[in-house]
Amino acid sequence: MLWRALRRFGQKLVRRRTLEPGMAETRLARCLSTLDLVALGVGSTLGAGVYVLAGEVAKDKAGPSIVICFLVAALSSVLAGLCYAEFGARVPRSGSAYLYSYVTVGELWAFTTGWNLILSYVIGIWVEGEAEAFFIIHRTSISLNVFVCWGSGRVEAVEKLFILLTSVLVSLRLLALGASESALVTKVFTGVNLLVLGFIIIAGFIKGDLHNWKLTEEDYKLAMAGLNDTSSFGLLGSGGFMPFGFQGILRGAATCFYAFVGFDCIATTGEEAKNPQRAIPLGIVISLFVCFLAYFGVSSALTLMMPYYQLHPESPLPEAFLYSGWSPARYVVAAGSLCALSTSLLGSMFPMPRVIYAMAEDGLLFRVLARVHSGTHTPIIATVVSGITAAFMAFLFELTDLVDLMSIGTLLAYSLVSICVLILRYQPQKDMKIEEEEVELQEKTPEAGKLTLQGLFSPLNSIPTPLSGQVVYVCASLLALLLTVLCLVLTELPVPLVSEGPVWIAVVALLLMLITGITWVIWRQPQSSTPLHFKVPAVPFLPLMSIFVNIYLMMQMTAGTWARFGVWMLIGFVIYFGYGIQHSQEEVKSGRLSSKSRAKTIDLDLSN
């Protein structure tokens, strides 16, 4: 009896949502074009980072080789972006990574993903709000000297009040405008931002000096000749294009990776895009490409205009134009910064209600959050809750304590989407004609329905079967576990491993052998031939590479960050096990099926 109860409970945790083929009816308005999605993705990604991050990374971590850092970071983001693109073509619904996990790996993982996406979006709103508050308050206070006599405590209070008001106003704007009008505002601001960035890139190449990419220690000494303190020479690197070496590029790339976070908001528009199977993949790929060009161009122009060691981390572009003799260009940069921050804040606020709406629609969160405004066709309660939550988070916590949580939530979502793509590519198609072909094939080759050594490494079928799909499901789960262990080992060990003794070398070698063998098993299984507008190339290798990169970056987080992550997940599990597991739509469906089966049994008994 106890075993049956535990078995039923376990089945609830891994039950998957079933979707009808094609685009289902939705209560949201399908009004967003491909251009709207590109503007949303670019606006969400090109926020404060493009105006601030390049200076910080170039000065302290990479120097002129920051252009390579952005290239590496872009390639890492593209790995996840391609997986999102395939799922956008495969599952055109709201919910992004939450829904992708629900239809592939089950309800508990789906709730975990959605709960972490909410956290990521909340902190993302907060980060952009604080950046905008810093820009407006501090840049204004420099010229007006209003806050000089206030003290830092009061200035921080004003910043937090500004974030609260901004978050509430943006959420109200989303309620008042709706998706199509918000997309129009985003397109206008994003267009202005791209024009400003284009001006920065062209001006930077005009005013730039190639000598700034091949500086020497003599240049450092000449630049600091008038200073008495020369103790900081060692922090300037060794000169040249890569003053901090290859290690500096890796450190810079790890920081630049988060500059590309934001494109996943496109995947939340599955029920508001006019043609989601085509628009979502195109929107993700194009927005990532545009963002890479912008980051690459701005960082190149910045390091050409000014020696990297003289960059101002908080406002590198205005200082670079002042150094180059084009001080009026600072006002152009200021206009672009405000447009970028506004669109990024709007882009961070846009997807969060969609995820909450999707989870509430499925019954995993409170049903009231799934209410849709009759006029704008937007999730009204979810939007209000999003704005209030983001606003009050600024008063409850310090930004430095929680900013890494955004990275954990985002990287976890990226990893799960990659796993889901890997699993679904090898599952049998839910089509009557295909199922008949599978049955006929299994009748001709009875051994095809049995798990044998030959079936693992050289399957006889050319199309996926339930057995081959189950093999891939188990192998993908094992690979996720082994990659996590490998990342833990690599995080704890310095490079090279030779200095750590033969035991660690044997551990790493064993893990790599197991990963290679299981990957080979997956690669040998038949893939689904379902026609899609976009498919991830080089499966299973590309998704596995994405999983490895994401997990490795997650392992760089501190113990305190993981402790706060545990508290957030504890709150989520209380909601899920106290409410969601009983009110899930899949639970309701199973209850209806059980009622129908019982009714049929009663009818049969009466007829007999």
TrEMBL record:
Domain (Cationic amino acid transporter C-terminal): residue spans on this chain: 534-584
Reactions performed catalytically: L-arginine(in) = L-arginine(out); L-ornithine(in) = L-ornithine(out); L-lysine(in) = L-lysine(out)
Keywords tagged on the record: Amino-acid transport, Cell membrane, Glycoprotein, Membrane, Transmembrane, Transmembrane helix, Transport
Origin superkingdom: Eukaryota
Membrane topology per record: Multi-pass membrane protein
Pfam short name (any one): AA_permease_2
GO terms for cellular component: plasma membrane
Transmembrane residue ranges: 32-53, 65-87, 99-127, 162-179, 185-206, 282-309, 329-350, 380-399, 405-424, 471-491, 503-523, 535-555, 561-579
Family note: Belongs to the amino acid-polyamine-organocation (APC) superfamily. Cationic amino acid transporter (CAT) (TC 2.A.3.3) family.
Protein's name according to its UniProt entry: Solute carrier family 7 member 3
The organism of origin for this protein: Otolemur garnettii (Small-eared galago)
